[in-house]
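Regression check, zinc ion case 470:
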Amino acid sequence: MQPLRLHPDRLFPADPGQRAIARRLYDAVKALPIVSPHGHTDPQWFADDEPFSDPASLLIQPDHYVFRMLYSQGVKLEDLGIPARDGSTVERDPRKIWRCFAEHYHLFRGTPSRLWLDFVFADVFGMEVRLEAGSADLYYDRIDMLLRDPAFRPRALFERFHIEVIATTEGPLDDLRHHRKIRDSGWTGRVVTAYRPDAVTDPETAGFLDNLKAFGEIADEDVGTWRGYLRAHEKRRAAFRDMGATSTDHGHLRATTADLSMMDCEALYARVRAGEASPAEADLFRAQVLTEMARMSIDDGMVMQLHPGVYRSHNPSLLARFGANMGADLPLPGEFVHGLKPLLDRFGADPRLSLILFTLDETTYARELAPLAGHYPALKIGPAWWFNDSPEGMRRFREQVTETAGFYNTVGFNDDTRAFLSIPARHDVARRMDCVWLAQLVAEHRLEEDEAHAVARALAYDLAKAAYKL
Ligand SMILES: [Zn+2]
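Current build output:
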């Protein structure tokens, strides 16, 4: 078996001068608390504080980065224990699932998943040898044993990871019971929700009309009219704020916005509510809703996030068999300059609005996002996201947005993950890569080292807190 080593200089420049600067910058920020303003951990973990059940369901089954790679190399999701919608047989033995993962672990060489997982194995579970077929049982037994230890329960890990605050993401139909339970428990860990209303803002989402009915019920509003529909959002947003939410999140196909008259909104809503909207009308509806959400954000102070440009569930047979979020989502080209104009015409200069933009289309960084955020007071740029959440993706992000948006129109790091144990690893990679970028600026005499220290701290901690009002 080969030793598992996390080199203290990993990701740092090979050049000794720059490496020394990067080390100094990183040493000053590596222990800062984690602020995790956007992600998808399950609030029930922190509400119930039950032990995680086994290594496979903790580390493999929630991580679509992991199973997309395995699937691409012929591993069946059945063999990873992903439940099939038709109830047909899938592997249920977590040890067998773990062995399958270990046999294929070499597929992750050079990927960020490998960096994150090795960090978890070494740092969280104290593993000293590399994961491979021959060490699969050693890993399984050790992790399985540790998960029964109270020190590895969700709340204990939250504290060990030095998480100051974490945001989960819930839909508008969620009754927020887990957040209420956390709040009422007296535990000091800070877990807040975020309002993601896609289920009732996208007429093309599955079950939309049923969702709308349930939305009216949970908000106790008549959603038969456009005004009632908007009031229902306002009430749900208030309920989410009661559970600590400071932000909303919108996963739209495009960053298109609209600013229709009240009469046009009412007519469009009537078509949508009758289930008669054409694809173009559905698009227009989503566009109008974004502008309404911006208006509500100005009223209630919630920060708005827009995550456009994902072709979800691209693989129809996988969707039919396993459902959504199975690693079959793909990046699309993005367009912001025209798309956001109706919203920006109304609210772009309003400092009470904070709209954080994400993209999977890196060609928009220098051409659209940095110029937009480098002008409009209401706009900021979210970090390198999803497919770009990698050392190279972070480098490309800083190289392309800093020239026009600077550092202070960006918002620090988001881990955006369901994989709870990987959170410290992901923040560590981001802190290292920001220090690498800053070290280059210092080495080239473009920034003094004391200023680089201030920026490194802002990127690791202060900006996320400020941008998300946490
Ligand atoms: Zn997300």
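Comparison notes: The mean pLDDT is 97. The first helix runs from residue 16 to 29. No diff flagged against the previous build.
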